[in-house]
Amino acid sequence: MFETISKKFQEVTRKLFSPAHLTEKNIEQGLQEIRTALLDADVNYKVAKDFIDKIKTKAVGVEVLKSISPAQQIVKIVYDELKDLMGPVDHSIHTSTGSVTVIMMVGLQGSGKTTTCAKFARYLREKHSYKPLLVAADIQRPAAIEQLTILGQSLEIPVFSNPALTPPKICQESLRYAKEKGNDLVILDTAGRLHIDEELMKEVGYIKALAKPDNIFLVTDAMTGQDAVNSAQEFNARLDIDGVILTKLDGDARGGAALSIKAVTGKPIKFIGVGEKLDKLEEFHPERMASRILGMGDVVSLVEKAQAVINEEEALEMQQKLLDASFTLQDFLNQFQMIKKMGNIQDLLGMLPGGLGVQFQNMPIQDKEFAKVEAIISSMTLEERKNPDVLDGRRRIRVAKGSGTSIEQVNHLLKQFREMRNMMRNLGSGRMGGMLGSMLGKIPGMGEFLNPHNSSAQNQKRRT
Length: 464
Known about the structure:
Helix 1 (3-16) packs antiparallel against helix 2 and helix 20 (393-403) crosses helix 21. It contains 24 helices and eight strands. It has helices at residues 3-16, 24-40, 45-59, 62-65, 70-86, 113-128, 144-155, 167-181, 198-211, 226-239, 256-265, 286-293, 299-309, 312-323, 329-341, 345-350, 356-361, 367-378, 382-386, 393-403, 407-427, 435-442, 446-450, 456-463; strands spanning 101-107, 132-137, 159-160, 185-190, 215-221, 243-247, 269-273, 281-283. The protein is flat. It has three domains: 3-86, Four Helix Bundle (Hemerythrin (Met), subunit A) (Up-down Bundle); 101-294, Rossmann fold (3-Layer(aba) Sandwich), CATH 3.40.50.300; 300-463, 434 Repressor (Amino-terminal Domain) (Orthogonal Bundle). The longest helix has 21 residues, at 407-427. It has an eight-stranded mixed sheet with strand order 3-2-4-1-5-6-7-8, with helices on both faces.
């Protein structure tokens, strides 16, 4: 997430803001490189200029120059400005004074709007106990109605459609249908359109007039950079949107949209899509995003993800197993599967603070490596998982064949597991912040489980 701009920001702060005494000259040089990084990320030119001017005004002053740690002071200023640039954000939605709250989704073609409608319906049902109704008002794109219907079925959320009507009438009829069926939330999936298409822009205006939505959200693709900002400007001018949902942040988004939209339109990014699955919609927190961009990690989000999948009693039990070295391969498999539910491993590692996230994200961690580890353990009997010492040569051959791996890989996994168990017994759980920290602390070396040919120098680098 914003890997390129994050690397550049961290390089600048490390290289230019490290002297014991800051001067106008090295501050100016550092800010020039930050400005270049912003423009490379497709941040709006005026936004980038204003951003740099604000930092310079705060940085070139007596308070900073007399600071005990000037570099940290500069980073703090940059962090505050990044946070202010993207926020503040209120994640609440406007509720209707009547019986049904209406949310209207608009956006360009290909922004992921239909899938986002389903994600948002799921989010509001889980978070606020709504009874949502999805409305297929996109009759422009082939299979759009079918796509929304399939998504609704997978979530057990009803979908209203009537392709014989015009989109404005479909939306109007859906409100009557929702009241009859007892749904208290309606999400309108309107057709994706180019903001220069006057006829289609008029159509969303008609839909707004008939359906009277309580909330209008623009769904926009984070990959499009400045184009996303331009479309946000146009949609906001026509519809007075309430906020933006930024999609595809799990890809190689440059960051231009996230850093520009609020400043240009005055409307914040409220939610972000971080994956294709229907549970991959999150609230957008400017302070957390600023922290990640500057390499400070995002521990709050990491803990929230952990709390969603890890039971506290199980965590305490696992902590005790780690302390007394009774941790088994079965335990490892169970915890590994829990961590997988939290999301992409690379993204999770990127949330670690103190520069660790940046280091781990640069490691060649592949999903197929994790799959092989899981396959090896799954090919063992329950007895073998609980007591790996019973795995003699014959059994290891069977496990290798059953998992589609080599005996060498099986042997290396067992060796690494024993080393990890010994390490956990010696260190305990406090050093890495409990059971989850201990597990995540070892995950970056997962490649070592599967590649016994790694050089000792590479292994030492990873441990460092």
